[in-house]
Amino acid sequence: MRQADSRPSRRAFLGATGTVTAAGLSAGCQSSSARPDRSDAPAPTPPVSPTGRYQAGITLPQPAQRNVLAVVADLVDAGSVRPLLAELGEAIGKLTAGTDTRLMGLSPGDLTVTIGVGPRLVRKVDPALPGAKDLPRFSREQIAPRARGGDLLIQICADDPLVIPVVAAALLEQAGERIRERWRQSGVRGPNVPVDKGLAAPRNLFGFVDGIVGPHTKAEQQRDLWLAGPAPVAHGTLAVLRRMELDLPRFAKLSVAEQEAVFGRRRASGVPLSGGTIASGPDLGAKTPDGRYLVPADAHARRAHATAVGVGLMLRRSYSIDGPAPGLLFMSFQNDIRTFTSTLTRMDNSDALLDYTTTTASATFLILPGFDKQHPLGSGLFS
Ligand code: HEM
User: Which residues have CB under 6 Å of ligand 1?
Assistant: First the structure.
């Protein structure tokens, strides 16, 4: 199996074919002989191993796959969690290997399935464990009771959009009457913009590159992403999912400079308003000659900045959505839930971006440690 960061330059391939397609389309208006060939099979995407120290679908593959479906469910009987998770882990092994007949011959490609358990289940084991606390409420929420929280997260990601509902159906069938679906959300990522060596990030529906800052080195991931302990949760992490509607018409009415002031970065290039390259962090102290901050006081990049908040880095792996309304399925992973809650609390006071958002779903999960044949999914936590 390939490591994701050694993927072939499939993006470059798609970029190249995209250009050819666009040229072919305009030619095709005049002559049917020049019509682009859309039957070309895409370059095969290398598989990502589902087993190992950490679950796949968080740092791997990099960049993240184009499509996501998050299914959130409740357990009917919390006592059945151990066998259920072990079965899901086995099914994930077969689905990602392409040997599960429920795939109906579809190639799983770079499919990953990531499983998390909600605070209610973690509290039953030990209320002191990371992941045992529900998320608090924040401002600008319009969340129906069924779209808040949940016992089980099934996060399915793949470049091939067809694979996703088929895998979801297989896993939900596997779980059967033992779980009750609560809410689900699918999302897509646009083309990746190169950020740094081995790192790329897509644009969101406001047109800005999203996912630049995060724990991208191994050392940062050890420090801020993966749980070091206690033993039952070591090598897991804490996920936050927030579905946010974005007010596109109102944001689109701002000038480009006003939009950039909301984020604190340039829209086209992703470069911070304080200068540098797209990979640079914002210089929060930089000022204009007349003493104004280059990154405005209420800019998202300032309000959410880890040092300004006083927390570690969160790994953001968000997807854009177009249902029930246009927006963002915000997804972050961190080893301390305060990284998320303190950041959003600080944003809540005065982040220019939040004015354009309404949150309509919210949940947190303990992403279980990685698994393999000898250590079934969830077996270290649930007895
Ligand atoms: C739950 C609410 C959110 C949290 C906790 C959050 C968190 C963060 C953090 C920690 C950063 C890095 C700041 C830095 O060091 O420069 C960031 C940057 C950014 N966020 Fe958010 N964010 C949230 C919502 C959103 C939304 C709704 C959008 C888009 C519509 C968005 C788009 C961006 C962009 C474009 C950047 C700058 C580039 C980057 O670092 O990727 N964020 N956010």
Answer: 204, 206, 208-213, 242, 244, 246, 263, 265, 281-282, 300-301, 304-306, 314, 328, 330, 340, 343-344, 353, 357
In this predicted structure, what is the pLDDT of residue 79? 84
Q: For a pLDDT cut of 90, what percent of the chain falls above it? A: 86
Task: Please name the residue that has the structure tokens 């470049």.
Answer: 159
Domain boundaries in the chain? 48-367
How far is the centre of ligand 1, averaged over its atoms, from the C-alpha of 17 (Å)? 31
**pLDDT by residue (tens digit) across 224-238?**
999 999 999 999 999
| Topology of the domain comprising 48-367 | Alpha-Beta Plaits (3.30.70)
Locate the ligand 1 atom nearest the alpha carbon of residue 306 and give its number: 15
CA nearest neighbour of 192 among 211, 174, 179: 211
Which atom of ligand 1 lies closest to the CA of 242? 1
The model's pLDDT over 5-44, given as tens digits with 9 standing for 90+, comes to 334 343 333 333 333 333 333 333 344 445 556 666 666 6
pTM of the model: 0.91
- How much distance in Å is there from the Cα of 76 to the middle of ligand 1? 35
The Cα–Cα gap between 336 and 348 comes to 19
